[in-house]
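From: lab user (bench 3)
To: helpdesk
Subject: output format question, protein + coenzyme A

Hello, I'm new to running complex predictions and I'm not sure whether the block I got back is the full result or only part of it. Here's what I submitted:
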Amino acid sequence: MSVALNQFPEQISPMLLKHGGVGIGPLLPEDTGALFVWTNDIEAQGLDQSYRPVDGVAFSTWLSTFASDHSRVLFAIRVAGNAAIAGYLMLSNIHPVNRCADLGIRVGREADRGRGIGTAATALGLDYAWTHLGLTRVQLRVLASNGRAVRAYERAGFRIEGRHARAAYIAGAWHDMLSMAAIRPGATES
Ligand SMILES: CC(C)(COP(=O)(O)OP(=O)(O)OC[C@H]1O[C@@H](n2cnc3c(N)ncnc32)[C@H](O)[C@@H]1OP(=O)(O)O)[C@@H](O)C(=O)NCCC(=O)NCCS
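Helpdesk reply: Thanks, we reran it on our side. This is the complete output you should expect:
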C-alpha cells in the first residue's frame, strides 16, 4: 500500500475508521456534487455494468433514503490532508439472518487510483461489517478483466469463489465476471 502514513489533521471531516492515510466516514453535503458526477462516469461504470445515466432527481431520492434504510450504509472515502471526498464505499443488501452484505466501491478520479486508497478503504469497509454490523460474509461481483479491482479486493481480504461466463454485456461486448467474498476472520460454522 503506497498511501503516505500521515496523521489526520484534527480539522478533517468526521471519520469513523482510519487505515494509515485513508479513512471512511459520513458523507457531507459538499460531497454530493462529486458523487453525482462519479455516478454518471461512463468509463468507470463500464468497469462494472452497462451504462445508464442517473438523473438528478433520482440521485437525490437515492441519497435521501440511506438514513432510513438499514439494509444499506454509504461511506465517503477521504485521504489524510485533503478534506475533499476521494471516493465512496457502500454496503448494501445487509441481511440480518444470513449476516451478509454486498460491497461496492469507487475511487472517484483516475489520478487517485492505483495508490492504495481502494485497498485500504475496502479493508475498512470489511472491518466495519465485522465489528459494527456483526456480519460474517461480504460479497461482490467484478469483471474478470478488471485486474486492478480484483487485486485490490484480494489484498483487502476477498477470495475468488467462482467465474460466470458472459455474465455482463457492456458497451457492445460480453464479459466474464468473478464472484468474490470475504469471510469474517475467526467465523465458525455455527
Ligand atoms: C477498483 C478500485 C476501487 C481499486 O482501488 P485503487 O485505489 O485503484 O486500488 P489500489 O491502488 O488499492 O490497489 C490496486 C492493486 O492492483 C494492482 N494493479 C494495478 N493495475 C493492475 C492490473 N492491470 N492488473 C492487476 N493488478 C493491477 C496494483 O499494483 C495494486 O496492487 P498492489 O497493492 O499489490 O501493488 C478503483 O481502481 C476504482 O474505483 N476503479 C474504477 C471503477 C472500478 O474498477 N470499479 C470496480 C467495480 S467492481
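A quick orientation on your result: The radius of gyration is 16 Å. Let us know if anything else is unclear.
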